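@channel sequence for tomorrow's demo:
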Amino acid sequence: MLDSVRKRNLKNEKKQDACLEKADKHKTFLARDPGLGNLRIHEQVILSIVGIVLTETDGVYPLPYSFVDGVIKLFKKKKLEKGIQLEEKDGKLTLQLYVKVDYGVNIPHVIKELQRNISKKIRDLTEMEVRQVNIDIQNIKDER
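structure tokens (generated this afternoon):
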């Protein structure tokens, strides 16, 4: 019986090591240390939150980094997160978004709303602080 417990413990340790190795290969952020262990959040989670908020905001659309990325996105149906960059410093996040807006929208109003919504949603869902949400408007969507 003692052998089976040792084997199970060894197997669990190997699983934990594999998870830590995998997490080290991807960008993760330490959300908090609750005393029982660390909570790490993968950057894809943050990017997904931002992508969802972007789709919920009328008049704003994410942009890919380049035209080639945009074409690839259309054919491969990649996620919205291509036009978003994420950086962490001193436990606070800074986001850089590249967007286009509908012609005729009040740009300062829509962008302030987007910044507030992104910051609030990240804080509510991850308990991480957002230092800045920088938005570059790179195009206007004309409905002609």
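heads up for whoever presents: The chain has four helices and six strands.
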